[in-house]
């Protein structure tokens, strides 16, 4: 008669044993990213958030480039060529520090670099991608406009031909990395349809004033892009795509990272609440010993586990080449919504301390209000899923 093997110890930070689904290499990527973030960002991010500025954003980006985090899921041109799951695990660690830190990396790799890598000419790839992968060059991605958010097809930015050149006029809003970027991937209406352009930010007529007075994503550079008669050579246009397929493909790449990243903010808030509940005493015992607090912690843990399993499943599909855009929408819709609820619930456990920047919870909650909206609002992802289920579009 065989005896059952001894059960592993219960890990309250991994209660479902999800780490058993990861390879040793994936765990190593996560650990290395966590260590880097703890060295270059975590000790300073609350101060950056409070002041609304990062002390040395270019230096921070360079640190991420040296680790191989920039465009890490792309192949060639100095990129690390790692898996989608590796990238997702890195996004969790970046956003466990701050959503603005993850956004900085995501816009660089999954928007600006991906657009050039996927749709650019060989000349464009050679010119920009190695420096961007190393963190020596910073990129931004210009799609959203003051009057065109969820409906990018209504953008007003125009690119017209003038001899052998292109001339761009328009404005873009809410652009991460804009004021520190060396290159902007800008989408504009042309006589042929929407096209992307690789715009050096030192081009005459280009400016990127920083957006102030934010109460979310404060540890992040957010800018407006102004294009006033920016003249570019014919070679500046991305040659391999026309229409909304281009920018939407890039957004799907970035949304995949968000599916994972939001769980970092949720994990940080949950672990903070769990630790606080064990230390804070009321009525003669830690508040972790009261039923209502335990109910909150159990529900937070459960939603975090479900989000992790969904993200990992979508990551495996992406690595297998079977991930559909609608499935990315499922992930973003669920994981951001649940991550935000976890942060809000954690805030209640911390009581008044929950609104202090001495703890990360209110910072994560404020940041996720932006993450909930950008790169596809709740409403838009709901309608994407609804159309996939019913076969009927309800966007208009």
Helix-strand layout with pairing:
Layout: H1 24-40, H2 45-51, H3 57-67, H4 84-97, H5 99-119, H6 122-134, E1 139-142, E2 158-162, E3 165-176, E4 183-190, E5 193-200, E6 206-207, E7 222-233, H7 245-279, E8 281-282, E9 285-286, H8 291-320, H9 325-350, H10 361-371, H11 378-390
Parallel strand pairs: 1-4
Antiparallel strand pairs: 2-3, 3-7, 4-5, 6-7, 8-9
Helix pairs in contact: 1-3, 1-4, 4-5, 4-7, 5-6, 5-7, 7-8, 7-9, 7-10, 8-9, 9-10, 9-11
Describe this structure in words.
The chain has 396 residues and is an alpha+beta fold. The protein is 50% helix and 14% strand. The strands form 3 sheets. The protein has a 4-stranded antiparallel β-sheet, with helices on one face. β2 and β3 form a beta hairpin. The longest helix is centred in the middle third of the chain and has 35 residues. The chain is globular. The model has no long low-confidence stretch (mean pLDDT 96).
């Amino acid at each position: 008669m065989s005896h059952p093997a001894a059960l592993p110890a219960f890990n309250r930070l991994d209660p479902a044993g999800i780490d058993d689904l990861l390879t040793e290499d994936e765990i190593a990527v996560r650990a290395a990213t966590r260590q880097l973030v703890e060295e270059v960002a975590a000790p300073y991010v609350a101060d950056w958030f409070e002041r609304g500025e990062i002390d040395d954003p270019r230096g921070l980006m360079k640190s991420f480039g040296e680790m191989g985090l920039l465009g890490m899921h792309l192949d060639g041109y100095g990129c690390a060529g790692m898996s989608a799951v590796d990238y997702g695990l890195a996004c969790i660690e970046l956003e466990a520090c701050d959503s603005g830190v993850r956004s900085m990396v995501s816009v660089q790799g999954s928007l600006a670099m991906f657009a050039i890598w996927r749709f650019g000419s060989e000349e464009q790839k050679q010119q920009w991608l190695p420096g961007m992968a190393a963190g020596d060059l910073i990129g931004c991605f210009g799609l959203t406009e003051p009057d065109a958010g969820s409906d990018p097809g209504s953008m007003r930015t125009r690119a017209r031909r003038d001899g052998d050149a292109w001339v761009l006029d328009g404005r873009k809003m809410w652009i991460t990395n804009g004021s520190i970027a060396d290159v902007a991937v800008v989408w504009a209406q042309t006589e042929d349809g929407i096209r992307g352009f690789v715009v050096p930010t030192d081009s005459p007529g280009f400016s990127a004033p920083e957006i102030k007075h934010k109460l979310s994503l404060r540890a992040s550079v957010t800018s407006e892009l102004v294009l006033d008669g920016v003249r570019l050579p014919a070679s500046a246009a991305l040659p391999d795509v026309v229409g909304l397929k281009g920018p939407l493909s890039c957004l799907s790449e970035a949304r995949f990272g968000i599916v994972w990243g939001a769980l970092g903010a949720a994990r940080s808030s949950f672990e903070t609440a769990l630790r606080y509940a064990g230390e804070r005493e009321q009525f003669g015992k830690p508040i972790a010993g009261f039923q209502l607090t335990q109910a909150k912690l159990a529900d937070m843990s459960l939603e975090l586990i479900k989000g992790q399993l969904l993200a990992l499943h979508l990551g495996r599909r992406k690595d297998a080449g079977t991930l559909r855009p609608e499935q990315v929408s499922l992930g973003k819709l669920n994981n951001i919504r649940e991550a935000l609820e976890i942060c809000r619930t954690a805030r209640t456990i911390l009581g008044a301390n929950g609104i202090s920047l001495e703890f990360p919870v209110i910072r994560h909650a404020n940041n996720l209000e932006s993450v909930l909206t950008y790169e596809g609002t709740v409403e838009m992802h709901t309608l994407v899923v609804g159309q996939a289920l019913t076969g009927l579009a309800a966007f208009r």
